[in-house]
Amino acid sequence: MRTYIIRRLAQMVPVFLGIMLILFLLLQLAPGGPTGMLMDPRMSAEQKQELAEKYGENKPFYEKFISWMADAAKGNFGNSITHKKPVVEVIKDFIGNTFLLAIVSLLVGLFIGVPIGIVSATKQYSAVDYGTTIFSLIGVSLPAFFFGLLLLKIFAVELPWFPIFGLTNPLLRKADWIVRAIDKAHHLVLPVTVLGLTQAASFMRYTRSSMLEVIRQDYVRTARAKGLRDKVVIYKHAFRNAMIPIITLLGFSIPGLISGALMTETIFSLPGLGKISVEAVGQRNYPLILGINAMLSIVTLLSALIADLLYATADPRIRYD
Amino acid sequence: MKEKPILEVKNLKTYFYSDSGTVKAADDVSFEVYPEETLGIVGESGCGKSITCMSIMQLIETPPGKYEGGEIIFDGIDIMKASKKQIMEIRGNKISMIFQEPMTSLNPVFRVADQIAEAIMIHQKISKKEAREEAVLMLGKVGIPNPERVAKDYPFSLSGGMRQRVMIAMALACKPKILIADEPTTALDVTIQAQVLQLMNDLKKDYKTSVIFITHDLGVIAEMSDRVMVMYAGKVVELADVEELFTEPMHPYTIGLMKSKPDMKTTGDRLTVIQGNVPNLNQLPTGCAFHPRCPYAMDICREKAPDLRDLSSSRKIACWKEFQEEGMKNE
Questions:
Q1: CB contact under 8 A, B119 and A221
Q2: B57 to chain A: which residues are within 8 Å by CB?
């Protein structure tokens, strides 16, 4: 097991290098550069040249890549051009909110999607099944930006129940932690609804199809023949097996969840990674773009590993040694 | 054999409804099971053997299946009308079942002993530890070497024969009155098959259990059964003691089956076969379902299906040929 994990981690290194190389190339192909934002239109050609030199923009591509990678290996991702702070610190400031949104939405998605999927599978072709299938189809196909704006229009503008933007009320900055927690939860309701329902919809679909497959298995019939109650048959014998592909899915859904969170944050103007990465792209803040993407690729690679490890705990037939 | 039967199936009708029509999988099936006997059920694939037994356990998926009528009397209860609670008490406790596919009949994510212990714990008020000890004991009884170690294994590490032994251990753990074995050896190779059959016969004697043994293997039936019931297209066509049936088959279908059975004397020649094919259960022929393939078919066979009637105290048959002869004798 330990050697397996070490081997997998080692395999991640070349994959990570490849991802960063492609990202670097993409940024090179994009017009403009980071210094464009800092340049005054009245600057002379020499001054522009000097500025570009200062940020190392004139160096050949491979030199830039190697020096960036060398620094990154030491944990130094450079400075964010607009924040005038190290990239790592900028990410640290904003990552908490993104993870909060992503994790709460994931939990909402799981706790709504999985039980509905089970019920829908056990009552296949019933009204409940059709209803939830339609719900999940809408949930999967409704774009987050549209659904988010719709919710904002209804529940924040027409009915002023929820705040329109942000994650905290600045007036409550000095209040009790419990008041601040409630305030934060209040701000999170709409964003979590958008992201959580999309997650719930996809978990529902996967749970339903996985359960439908498992319910027809011989061992489910054996469990019934033993005299077990239907609930035990479904939730213990069938779901324990149906869970296996869902766990794998869980690991692979983490990157999608985070990119979904980035999108949702932008709609609701939440101070998270999504907001700063959109800004960073707009401002050609290359060090920050690279830093955020490096972090996201590491998260993605790690979640794939976590998915595989969880898979082994869920299914006794899978062993890594 | 004239004791009181412990299970009586009377006019059981289990139908399946689909877009392409109604399938009468078990149509007016009646039979009894006596204490400590083995009743063999033979017939081709799709003749309703398994559906009949699944109906006894009330394991048919409804829909698409539907119990259209009949009674299944066990322990003074009509299972067809029994409450869910009563059925749960019977299943796995008084009547238990083993299936055709040992490879897929055990849950892959639970340990072998836990799956057996679970069956014990549903029906007996004992602790988890006691149930586990009992499970290990059962594994020993079904001839699994080193039961302590196998108990902790998952099914994937066992062979097909071992898994079927585990299934038998699970089915017998609560000392049921009836064990239904639905082609338990079909998926096993011949030597393992012989071992499992031997084991079932031994355990049957120890536990004083009645067995309903479903198979399409006439050799297995001859070895295992006291009485044999032959089914064709959802109906019982002949029911007789095993020796009677093998020495003097009477229903044309049974005669056909016996003729098509290879024996030691069979050489390179082609096997005798019953002409024609098994009818589509959606569109059964009128009258007796077997008449298009029957060498003795008469006019009445095309018009009216024969009932299952007593031919002697130990023999029942559903064939016009026999009744006409009987009728003539009486005149």
A1: no
A2: 225
pTM of the model: 0.80
Do A46 and A12 have their domain in common?
yes
**Where is the domain boundary, A57, A86, A115?**
A86
* C-alpha span between A110 and A117 (Å, rounded): 10
Give the distance from residue A123's alpha carbon to the nearest chain B alpha carbon, in angstroms.
Answer: 11
Nearest CA in chain A to B111: A316
Residue B59 forms contact with A (CB below 8 Å): yes
Contact check, Cβ <8 Å, A228/B156: no
Name which of A117, A109, A134 is nearest A235 in CA terms: A117
Residues A200 and A299 in one domain: yes
Mean pLDDT of all residues in A156-184? 81
Among A45, A67, A86, residue at a domain's last position: A86
Structural domain boundaries enclosing A48: 2-86
Tokens 């595989």 found at? A308
Confirm whether A106 is domain-assigned. yes
Facing residue for A225 by CB, picked from B89, B91, B156: B91
CB–CB of B305/B289 below 8 Å? yes
> Tell me, what's the ipTM?
0.84
- A196 with A262, same domain: the answer is yes
Do residues A73 and A115 share a domain? no
Question: Cis omega before residue A191 (within 30°)?
Answer: no
Say if residues B287 and B235 touch (Cβ distance below 8 Å): no
In a domain? residue A319: no
pLDDT confidence of residue B325: 62
Among A123, A217, A219, the residue to mutate for chain B (most B Cβ within 10 A) = A219
Asked if B167 is an interface residue toward chain A (Cβ–Cβ < 8 A), one would say yes
Q: A321 in a domain, yes or no?
A: no
